[in-house]
Write a structure and sequence with these properties.
Elements lengths: L2 E8 L15 H8 L11 H12 L2 H4 L3 E7 L5 E5 L9 H14 L7 E5 H5 L4 E11 L1 H8 L6 E6 L14 E4 L7 H17 L6
Parallel strand pairs: 1-2, 1-6, 5-6, 5-7
Antiparallel strand pairs: 2-3, 3-4
Helix pairs in contact: 2-7
Bound molecules: S-adenosylmethionine.
Length: 206
Amino acid sequence: MLVHIHIFEAAVELAPKRSKYPLLDLSYHNSLIRGSPSAGKRGRPDILHRCLLILQDSILNHLGKLKVSFSTYSDPEISYVIDPSMRPPRSYIRFMGLIAELLRTGEIKSSLIRSISTEELLNDEVHTFLLSKAGEKIGLKGFFSKISTTEPQRFLIGGFQKGFWEKPLPHDAVLSLSDYTLSSSQVAGIVATLSALKLENGEIRG
Ligand SMILES: C[S@@+](CC[C@H](N)C(=O)[O-])C[C@H]1O[C@@H](n2cnc3c(N)ncnc32)[C@H](O)[C@@H]1O
C-alpha cells in the first residue's frame, strides 16, 4: 500500500531579480500581489513549507508508505517528487533558497527532489480523491473508512490560501473532512496520520 499526497498549485513563485528574498512572499511583496486576480494563490511559500515538514516527518513516511509531490500555481504543468529521505530545511529562509534553486534549475544539489510533467505523474490508474471543503461531507470517521487496506491511493490537496483550482486534475471523488475551511498542512497531517493509524491497526497490507 502506498499513499501519494500531491500538493497542487502551491502559492510559490520566484521573486523579481533584485528582491531581498528569492521567492514571492506576501509579507515582503504585498504591493506586487495586491489587486492581482490570482492573489489568493500567490506569495505564500510558507503553506508548502509546513506541508512538507509535516509529511516528510510523518510516521507514514518513516514506515516507507508515503510519496509526496507538489506543483506550483505559477507553473502547474511541472511537478516535483520528493524523495522519502529528504528533510526539508526547518528554517523558512533556507527553505525559500532551496525551492528557488529548484524552480530556477529544475533540481537541487542533493538530487532529493526531481521534476516530472504533472500529466505523467498523475496519469495512471491510482484511485484519486480531491480534498475540498466543497466535497462530499464525510468527516474524519468517514474518511478513515475510505482509506484502502490494499490498494494505492492518491490525495490531492491545494497548496494555496484562497479559492479552488485553476487547472483541474484527474480524480475519482471529492471529499470534505469538515464543515470548516482547514489549512493545507492540517489536511496533509490528517491524511498522513489516519493512514498510519490504519496501518498500525494492521488493516493495511502490502
Ligand atoms: C486553505 S484551503 C483553500 C481554501 C478553499 N476555499 C477551500 O475551502 O478548500 C487549502 C486546501 O485545504 C484543503 N481543505 C480545506 N478545507 C478542507 C475541508 N473541510 N475538507 C477537505 N479538504 C479541505 C483543500 O484541499 C484546499 O484546497
